[in-house]
Amino acid sequence: MQHIMTLTFNPTVDAACEVYHVDAVQKIRTHDESFHPGGGGINVARVIDRLGGSTQALYARGGVMGAVLDHLLEERQIAKKIIRIAGETRINNVIHEQSTGSEYRFIAEGPVLQDSEWRDCLRACEDNDWDWLVVSGSLPRGVPVAVYDELIALAGRRGGEIVIDTSGEALQHVMQLGGATLIKPSQDEFEECTGQKYDRPEDIAEAAQHLVHGGISKAIAVTLGAEGAVLATRNEKICLPSPKVKAISASGAGDSFVGGALYVLAKGGSVADAFRLGLACGAATVMEKGTGLGTLENIKEICQNIAAQSYARIFAS
Length: 317
What we know:
Blueprint: E1 4-8, E2 12-19, E3 31-38, H1 40-51, E4 55-61, H2 63-75, E5 80-84, E6 90-97, E7 103-106, H3 115-127, E8 132-136, H4 147-158, E9 161-165, H5 168-177, E10 180-183, H6 187-194, H7 201-213, E11 217-223, E12 229-233, E13 237-240, H8 253-266, H9 271-286, H10 296-305, H11 308-311, E14 313-315
Parallel strand pairs: 1-4, 1-8, 2-6, 4-5, 8-9, 9-10, 10-11
Antiparallel strand pairs: 2-3, 6-7, 11-12, 12-13, 13-14
Helix pairs in contact: 1-8, 8-9, 9-10
C-alpha cells in the first residue's frame, strides 16, 4: 500500500455530549461526554487507520488543548508529526438534543498561525516520505490560500498525488489553480464555486467532468448529503444514492468519505471501488453520535450492500 500523509492546519479537540433539551439561560446537564481528535486531515487518518491502512497525521497544534490532541491520537495509536505553534488549539462542541433529535454544532475559529509556523508545515511535507498527501479542513487565520500553490507544486515535483478538501475562498482558489488529484466539495460548496444551482445529480456530474477536462483535478467527487454523491473523472461519471441508514450526526461524514476512497486508491484499486467505499464510510459515520466515526462492522455491511450493477448509475462519457 502506498504511504499516505494527512495535513491539518487547524485541528481540533472534538467534544460531544447528550442533553435532554436545550433551554436558554437554564443550567443544562449533559451526559455521555466524549472527546475525539478532529479536524479534516486527522479524521481522514482515523478512517484509514480503522480500515487497516498506513498513514501519518501531520498537524499544527499549541497550548494545553494541543497536548490533549496529542494524547487522543496516541490512545488510538495513529502515527503523528507535530508542528508546534504559539496559539491554542481549538475545541469544537457537538450537542445532541434527545427531545427533538436535533444536533447543535459549535465550531471554533481557532488560532492565528504565524508565517514561520505554516511554513514549518510545508517543510515537514517536503522532508517526509509520502505517495499521497491529503490536505483537508479549514485554513486558520494567518495562512494564505496560496499555500495550496506550493503544496500542489510539491506533489508535482516528487510525482506524488494530492487530495484537497476545503471550502470557501480556499476551494475557489484551488479550482482556479488546477493540478490536484482529487477535490471533494459538498454540493453547497460546489454550487458556490461554480455560481450555479443544480437540480439533478446528473447535472452536477456533468459540470464536474467539464472541470476535470479543464485540468482542475484528475477527479472531482461531490457529496450530496442524503442524496448520495457523484464522481467525475475524464472518462466516466458515477452517481451513487446514499445508503439507507439511520442518520444521527453528520459530523465527520465528508472526511470519512475521503478516508475510505483514499484507502482504496492507495492500494491500487479502481476509482469506482474507491468511490463505493468512500460512500460506505460516510454513511457509517452518520450512524454515530457526536464526532464518532463509522465502525468497521458498519462500513463492511454497508459496502456489501452497494452493488455496482443495481445501485450505481453510471453515465457514458
